[in-house]
Specification:
The protein has 134 residues and is mostly helical. Helices cover 60% and strands 0% of the residues. This is Receptor activity-modifying protein 1.
Length: 134
């Protein structure tokens, strides 16, 4: 009976969840990535991204066709920096590079009311007419 309880305890509390058993070299790397990673991305990746985006008209910043290549290069660069520093990727620092473009698009307007009524009447008239032909 004690054997079963110890097995259950091992399954529910694996030894990997105890941070005190972590290597002292692993934990500081994970916890210290934020500032070191941000500085490296700013130095190596953002300068190029800023130059690429400055070449575009601000009206094009929300056009995926125009910004796909700069964002792809920024993504690859930030990934390589994270890989080199041993940081997780993607991380919350990656989100600061995206633009807010939701308000820049034209809203879709419904079609003219007269056209909608005419099409509805045509469908109803056509469905009644075909019932008698069967």
């Amino acid at each position: 009976m004690q054997r079963t309880q110890s097995r259950v305890q091992i399954k529910t509390n694996p030894p990997h969840t105890d941070l005190s058993t972590c290597s002292p070299f692993v934990l500081p790397t994970v916890l210290g990535c934020s500032s070191e990673y941000s500085e490296a991305v700013d130095e190596f990746c953002l300068s190029r991204f800023s130059l690429d985006m400055d070449q575009l008209d601000p009206n094009q910043w929300c056009s995926w066709e125009d910004t796909m290549e700069p964002y792809l290069e920024l993504t690859n660069c930030s990934y390589l920096v994270a890989l080199r520093l041993g940081c997780f990727w993607p991380n919350r620092d990656v989100d600061r590079f995206s633009w807010t473009c939701t308000g820049n698009h034209r809203a879709l307007h419904p079609g003219p009311v007269l056209v909608t009524l005419l099409m509805t009447a045509l469908v109803v008239w056509r469905s009644k007419r075909s019932e008698g032909i069967v």
